[in-house]
Design a protein that fits this description.
27% helix, 18 strands, 11-stranded mixed β-sheet, Rossmann fold, 4-stranded mixed β-sheet, 339 residues
Length: 339
Amino acid sequence: MSTILVKEFPAHAPFRMRRLPFLARFYRYAYKEQATSRAEQLFMSALRQLYPLYHRLCRSSVGEFDYERLGRRTTIRFNGRNIVFQALYAPLFKNGYEPDVAALLDSLLPEGGTFFDIGSNWGYFTLLAASNHSKLTVHAFEPTPTTFQDLTSCLAQAGISDLVTCHNLALSSADGEAFIQMPGIDSGMAQVSKSGGVARVGTRRLDSLNLPGPDFIKADVEGHEIEVFKGATETLKMSRPFIVFENKPDYLRPENALDALFFLAGLGYRFYMPAVQRRHDGQDYFMQCGWHPVGDGEKLALVSFEPGTRHLWQLDVNVFACHESRQQELMTVFKAWPA
């Protein structure tokens, strides 16, 4: 039987869109969740075919968003050509981008702690973590050169470069070189590959970087998770950080989803699916965490599972992994359900 842990969702929203450039407004409309009529559906389909061409032709697109840290607000200029900034403006994310990851960071990253943001893109989660911590050490890893420029620019404008060390490399299981493949124009889909791609990048094992032990790791590396974890074996054994990582089901090659889970299990990790606890007609029920609104009184839930049952959960998920030695620490933040 699954163990279910619950806690209140932290109320924390440090970002507010200030000025959206035309390229981003084009994207927001063309890729909004659904059309309201058949005519609009056809129009949106045409826009989606035009958008990649316009993206290539539009060499500059600058917008602004406000970022609040410890009560102080700063305006940050951003590169509208990087689609991943949609975390700030797409209707899909109007209630926050990956609220489960954000809530886990808010709940479990201690003041003065160390956070590894692996696959940081422009730095959404690095900025989020820094927004309510006066003391923090962050190591942000982003291998794609153009996206790395967005990362360093945002952090410098936010005034937190002294807290964050940015690494323009790909974490992997060996020190060497690889390529970045970019399916389409979405930097969030960039993948590490041994064959050719849009850029050649250095690869390093986390164990070889001689960094301070992390308290919390977020990894979003588009299928490269097992290589990252293998290269971090000694770090994981010594520090036993909380880990949240993207995991995609693959029914033709299930090992693509399972390898990272079984590897971490061998190091003593236990696994949870983040969910939302809701009530209907006086009864509690749970929904997989996604992009739906988090309403008043709803709670963040962690539902335990075994690696072998992963493919019973059909959607892409952010898996939360807690080392068995830190279960009691987890229970000081979450409560068992039912009480």
